[in-house]
Amino acid sequence: MRTALAPLVAACAIGASVGCGAQSSAAPGGRGQSGPAAGEGSVQNAALARRDPKAQRPTAPIVTPARRLGSAWRPVASLAGAPAAWEAQHGGVTLLRFDQRLVRLILHAGQGEPSGRWAYGDHIGRTEIHRVVAAFNGGFKFETGVVGYMSQGRVAVRLQAGLGSIVTYRNGTTQIGAWRNGVPAHGKRIASVLQNLHLLVDHGAAASTVEGCIQSCWGATVGGVDVVARSGLGITENGQLVWAAGESLTPADLARALIGAGVQRAVELDINPDWVAGYLYVHGGSGPRAVPVVPGQLGISGRFLSPYTRDFFTIVAR
Amino acid sequence: MSAFSLLGYSLLSFKRDSRAMATRSAVLLWPEGSARKLGALALSGAALLLLTLSWASVAHARSGARPAGKSQHAAIVAAFKAGDGNPAEVHGVFVSRSHPGLAVVCVHTPEAGKRAFVFALRKSSWRYVTSGLVGRAGNSTQRALERACG
Fold first, then answer.
1. Against a cut of 0.90, is the pTM above it?
2. Using the beta-carbon criterion (under 8 Å), do B84 and A297 form an inter-chain contact?
3. Distance CA A33, CA A17 (A)
4. Is B55 exposed, middle or buried (0-12, 13-18, 19+ CB in 10 A)?
5. Do the chains contact at A1 and B84, CB–CB below 8 Å?
6. Is B119 helix (H, G, I), strand (E, B) or coil?
7. pLDDT tens string A284-315
8. What value of ipTM does the predicted structure carry?
9. Which residues lie across from B104 on neighbouring strands?
């Protein structure tokens, strides 16, 4: 996505308390790493009780994309027998949910944005290739002025107070919240931060601008239409990460889907058809095979297994 | 057409002028008889290439479009990029012969096949009009133009 949103974001920042959802309830170091969603807790906890992932060596994930999806969550990846990722589709939105006790989020630098050499670069590298579960698009183009980017202590784009931030700590856990107003957690060492706009969802509610300020607050779209490909990343109360995307969504649709998945805080990621895509990686003898997850997605050349121009995220087994 | 078939084709041409030398060269590179096979392969490749080019020409003719000139191409791709399109996926830009103010950007997407993005010239700048599967977006004139994408 590109477009100069800076003046409007500044305006949003002034009226942050209501306008763009800059209030974050992200508790520093909060309940980020607790159990799975209700309904699966007993099964998964039992599995985890038998197999403490932290006590074991890294295991290759077993990824089995669901053939038919509905609004009920279906497990699509497991680690040492314990479900680590689930998928669902509802109202034109594809949702992927990840258990942070078993998998972690990694921010990758693109070939063009940010340029230069980074610890996690423009494709899924050797350290992840046998552990990758999923990958999906990152945020807006840097020129929009509503992005912040930091990784392994290097800042590509200055971080701005109040922006919605996906913060991954050195211990491998990720928290989402408004920068300096919920994140980062006190005393935790940061591995990476990606900022994009203001929070789309905060305190489990959509930002007040999702209906009336679409183009200016949530990104200019191809042809100026409101219904377009959109994506977002959120976090539930118990610390699970939820990525949501669809080819024909308004910001309100996206927020509604995330909230329906139990998300408390979320950031809108990239928008427009060329830039929204997600994959699950099925592991076999000849390496991982990428399976597209969003019906109708135009796709990303190389599917993150070969260099990509823009920043993106991977989900890998811990 | 691969480099090997081109090499084989070159060898055969050379053979007409200097058969003995060509035979020696062929023997040096491939076992006896391979050069002939490669020649046949090269001819098939060339025929395929011709067929593809003719098909593309037919597509352009049927759509009533011509490839955009250099400066037009740059301006239209810039408009496409400004609309948040990915220029890396553009594989052709065509302008309507009957409506010179109408252009199409052909995009080959990794997972959704070919897409057409139609632009119109308004007040000396190209503006996005519509997009979708080739031959399916917009009005009849625009759909006809999209056929240039093949």
1. no
2. no
3. 28
4. exposed
5. yes
6. strand
7. 988 999 999 999 999 999 999 999 999 999 99
8. 0.73
9. B94, B118
